[in-house]
Design a protein that fits this description.
The complex is a heterotrimer of chains A (474), B (175) and C (238).
Chain A: E1 3-5, E2 25-29, H1 36-44, H2 46-49, E3 54-56, E4 60-61, E5 64-65, E6 79-82, H3 95-105, H4 110-123, H5 139-150, E7 157-161, H6 169-184, E8 188-193, E9 205-210, E10 213-219, H7 220-223, H8 226-231, E11 259-271, E12 274-285, E13 289-293, H9 300-308, E14 314-320, E15 327-329, H10 342-353, H11 357-362, H12 367-370, H13 380-393, E16 398-402, H14 410-425, E17 429-433, H15 437-442, E18 446-451, E19 454-458, H16 460-471
Parallel strand pairs in A: 2-8, 2-9, 6-7, 7-8, 13-17, 13-18, 15-16, 16-17
Antiparallel strand pairs in A: 1-3, 4-5, 9-10, 11-12, 11-14, 18-19
Helix pairs in contact in A: 3-4, 3-5, 5-6, 6-16, 13-14
Chain B: H1 9-49, H2 56-64, H3 69-84, H4 91-109, H5 117-126, H6 128-139, H7 145-173
Chain C: H1 7-23, H2 27-45, H3 51-72, E1 78-81, E2 86-88, H4 89-115, H5 118-127, H6 133-162, H7 172-199, H8 215-237
Helix pairs in contact in C: 1-4, 1-8, 2-4, 2-8, 3-4, 5-6, 6-7
Classes of the chains: A alpha/beta (474), B mainly alpha (175), C mainly alpha (238).
């Protein structure tokens, strides 16, 4: 393919070529904005058939040119595409309907469709949940449902867009198992990821793209070399599992004086008599960064919300040192915005907090360029950055971050880390709930593992290794 | 119109968004209506609340921007309201159809070329008369000529205000 | 239940019965259908629906109907007369009809919702009533979104409390800034959801095969017809 884009004169992709064989995993890596998703949309034919985009070049899947399909034809039978965020592609109220939707669209008779759907759901461990509402599924179950519903008809080519972006390491392990099965069954699998570390051992080919251009291609054998991977560290792609302590030179420099938060025998529940956690006790010092780890559903968010005072169904003691409360920041930054341009948003913050717009905008390197844009139009990294700046302006003693690194590539991750470090050096403490080993190995001073309703203090670096080994890559 | 209007998957999904947001607001509006009627009487209550019941059309139209999207947004919104909280009963669907059709006229007047805030306000205002007419049938709320005129006017003003709000939100969301 | 029926028949029934409420304007015409549907609705719907809310609403609407009757239709013979107010027969009649209509409509709706779940109803509308499959998709997707949106709303309200701004959603001053993040998120979801739907062959979709009418459907339609007849005939007889 030579070039492709959504609008004329706007090239997102500028020259990418590769070929895949039966039973091969092709891995495409690149930082945010490198054109990874556009590549998948192009290959699937959706870019040209649905989104009104254009493509110069040829994509051939099993003999069919997918970018020049006859009008209104989509490549459904040939290609299964699993999109990045499960929240954005689950379409039906129940798992059964979700799989039936694909099958019925493809013309399956009702009886066959139901039979196939039930067996596909069984294969993805969703037996017994066929008719529960999808919103009561866990993050990992939703991910599996998206895999099931994109491929119940066994398409030849299966493509996955950042399949590990929004799940815990337990979920990563399941996705890896699924990919391995697809390869064994002889499918061609195409994965775009910036955390390619999770698939590198399964891949036959790795293509590195940057600004829509292929910059390098490596064979499976080359990928097994650690030196090569080390050389790719600065490409914005997460190529290696955490396996050595990072140069965490900085933790010692801060003054950690005084207790900011004391949690004493906290118990939380949603239904009376069925606590989801109990006996949670810990203290946090001024300027400390504490990571909170544990599988999805272990109560990390509930704990953060209890500390912030938004989850009321709890007993025990939570005491924040001064009258300035803890400030809770959700992983979806959009919830926090009130105004329709970045400049107005900052003016609003200034009015409430007394921190001037000048001081605030100094904190945002992208301010001058983007000040007239709606905050919703900023990149994910910038939006997270903005929510942090807003939280900081309210000058709380303690900022609670819920999964702040989900969906960020390595560059954005480093930016976020440096921002958090700067703020914590001035005495603000952080509690960060996370599945990301890098938060543990590069940022956190301490870590608490939340599991089966109990909390226990663990060494952050060991916790990072544990997460990588659960995902199956260490 | 000689040609068939084709809704893509994205259009249909946007329609669903508009419907479910309006369905939820429709449900909440019952409280607003009863509270405001107790506080400021029938005319004030209509100004404060009625427009909220009309926002399905401007919201859907400003997001989807295709013919009949206004009608469908209001109609499916009403259906969603009936199914999640049957406070107004299934007659909601009848109201939704009538109001949606009236709002659709608003967009037709602009030949389906403009989907902005002015059009949203017009669409909202147009939903007022059929709504007051149905009220008269169903709840026997028939007053004198002057009174009825005032009510229609109140419903139209309310529709215009909330129509403008809803479509301005829709416009800013869709780049 | 051994009688097979299409869920869509109940939808037609509920709509059809509600039409009586619009068309009829006398106590006689409304009384029997209202009692039937009110009783059925209470029996069948009480398990699935927030009855407290409905009862509160009932109180409100009764009071509203009373005021309405007093205000607009206080004509005819004097029934009650005190120093404060005089109630005439017109007011009573209007009060009764409005309440009967309410019973009728909510009762019929509750009957429908008590007997079908929303999922089957949408499917049945698509296959038996030939609702366009695009619309069926849209309605089903709306119900998939519903809990997601209520979660969005509660998160937005948390963020607003953090930022010390008002959380009264109904206040027009707040409505826009509450709607904006929810709509922005939903817009993004809808765009990807739409893409996902197309990828999974939405435009290939043909209507599903309809099912034959069963004895249950006939009974439902019969019940509807009988009530229409009653509401037409009773006023002529009385």
């Amino acid at each position: 393919m030579n070039a492709a884009g959504y609008r004329m004169n706007e090239e997102i992709i500028k020259g990418i070529d590769f070929r895949g064989l039966d039973g091969e995993l092709i891995l495409v890596g690149g930082s945010s904005g490198s054109g990874k998703t556009t590549l998948l949309l192009t290959v699937s034919g959706v870019l040209t058939s649905l989104l009104g985009g254009w493509v110069d070049g040829v994509v051939t899947v099993n003999g069919v040119n997918t970018v020049k399909m006859p009008e209104n034809a989509v490549t459904t039978k040939l290609v299964g595409l699993v999109l990045q965020d499960p929240e954005k592609q689950v379409l039906m109220p129940t798992p059964l309907d979700e799989v039936l939707f694909t099958l019925e669209n493809l013309g399956y008779e009702e009886k066959d469709a139901v039979k196939t759907a039930v067996s596909v759901l069984g294969r993805f461990g969703l037996t017994g949940k066929e008719l529960t509402h999808v919103e009561s599924l866990s993050g990992g179950e939703k991910r599996r449902l998206t895999l099931a519903s994109a491929t119940p008809h066994n398409p030849y080519l299966v493509m996955l867009d950042e399949p590990t972006a929004s799940i815990d390491p337990w979920g990563v392990r399941e996705v890896r198992r699924y990919v391995a099965e697809l390869i064994k069954e002889g499918h061609v699998v195409l994965i775009v990821e910036h955390k390619i570390k999770y698939f590198i051992d399964l891949a036959e080919k790795f293509i590195l793209i940057d600004s829509g251009r292929k910059v390098a291609e490596f064979s499976g054998d080359e990928l097994r070399s650690r030196d090569l991977l080390r050389g790719l560290r600065h490409s914005g792609v997460d190529v290696e599992p955490v396996h050595e302590p990072a140069e965490k030179t900085y933790g010692g420099r801060r003054a950690r004086d005084g207790v900011v938060l004391r949690v004493d025998s906290l118990e939380c529940w949603y239904e009376e008599g069925r606590p989801i956690m109990r006996g949670i006790s810990f203290e946090l010092m001024r300027g400390e960064i504490l990571a909170l780890v544990g599988p999805n559903g272990s109560g990390k968010t509930t704990l953060l919300k209890s500390i912030a005072g938004f989850h009321k169904k709890c007993s025990g003691e939570v005491r924040v040192a001064t009258d300035k409360r803890a400030f809770y920041v959700h992983q979806t930054p959009d919830y926090m915005f009130l105004e329709n341009t970045l400049a107005k948003e900052l003016r609003h913050v200034a009015l409430r907090t007394g921190v001037s717009v000048e001081v605030l905008s100094e904190r945002l390197p992208f301010f001058t360029l983007k000040k007239e844009l709606p905050p919703y139009r900023l990149s994910l990294g910038q939006r997270r950055w903005l929510t942090l700046a807003i939280a900081w302006a309210y000058s709380p003693e303690l900022i609670l971050l819920d999964e702040p690194t989900a969906g960020l590539d390595l560059h954005l991750l480093k930016d976020l880390f440096s921002f958090i470090k700067t703020v914590s050096e001035r005495g603000t403490s952080f509690i960060i709930s996370t599945h990301d080993p890098r938060v543990l190995s590069e940022l956190a001073d301490r870590a608490i593992l939340l599991e089966e309703g109990k909390a226990r203090e663990v060494d952050p670096f060991k916790a990072a290794l544990m997460l990588e080994s659960i995902a199956g890559v260490y | 119109m000689g040609h068939v209007i084709k809704f893509t998957g994205v259009d249909l999904a946007l329609l669903a968004v508009a419907s479910v947001v309006s369905g939820v607001i429709f449900t909440a509006t019952w409280t607003v209506y009863y509270t405001s009627e107790a506080l400021v009487g029938p005319i004030g209550a209509r100004v404060i609340s009625y427009g909220l019941w009309f926002i399905g059309a401007p919201l859907a139209a400003s997001l989807v921007r295709k013919p009949i999207s206004a009608l469908l947004g209001e109609l499916i919104g009403a259906l969603v309201e009936t199914l999640i909280a049957p406070l107004g009963g299934i007659t909601n669907v009848i109201y939704g159809f009538a109001q949606g059709l009236a709002s659709e006229l608003g967009y037709l007047m602009f030949r389906y070329k403009r989907w902005g805030i002015v059009q949203g306000a017009v669409a909202g205002a147009l939903a007022g008369p059929p709504c007051v007419a149905l009220d008269a049938l169903l709840f026997g709320e028939i007053g004198g000529v002057a009174e009825m005129c005032l009510w229609v006017l109140a419903a139209c003003i309310s529709g215009a205000i909330y129509g403008a709000i809803a479509s301005s939100a829709g416009v800013s969301v869709r780049k | 239940m051994l009688l097979k029926y299409r869920e869509s028949s109940l939808f037609i029934y509920a709509l059809g019965v509600s039409v009586i409420a619009f068309v009829s304007n006398s106590v006689g015409a409304l009384l029997i259908p209202s009692l039937i549907n009110g009783a059925l609705g209470l029996m069948l719907g009480s398990k699935r629906l927030p009855m407290k809310l409905l009862l509160t609403l009932l109180v409100f609407s009764t009071w509203g109907a009373f005021l309405n009757g007093l205000y607009f239709h206080n004509t005819g013979e004097i029934v009650v007369s005190t120093r404060v107010l005089t109630i005439r027969s017109g007011a009573i009649e209007s009060f009764l009809t409005v309440n009967l209509r309410f019973f009728l409509i909510v009762g019929a709706t509750l009957t429908m919702l008590g007997l079908v779940n929303i999922r089957d109803l949408i499917k049945s509308l698509e296959r038996d009533l030939r609702m366009p499959s695009g619309l069926a998709f849209s309605i089903a997707y709306a119900f998939r979104l519903f809990p997601l949106l209520s979660r969005d709303l509660s998160e937005v309200l948390i963020a607003r409390r953090e930022r010390r701004v008002g959380t009264n959603v109904i206040n027009p001053k707040n409505l826009r800034s509450v709607l904006l993040p929810i709509l922005n998120l939903s817009y993004e979801r809808a765009v990807w959801g739409g893409i996902s739907a197309e990828l999974r062959g939405l435009s290939f979709r043909k209507s599903l095969k309809g099912r034959p009418l069963g004895p249950g459907d006939l009974i439902i339609m019969l019940a509807l017809t009988v009530q229409w007849l009653i509401s037409y005939l009773v006023p002529l007889l009385v």
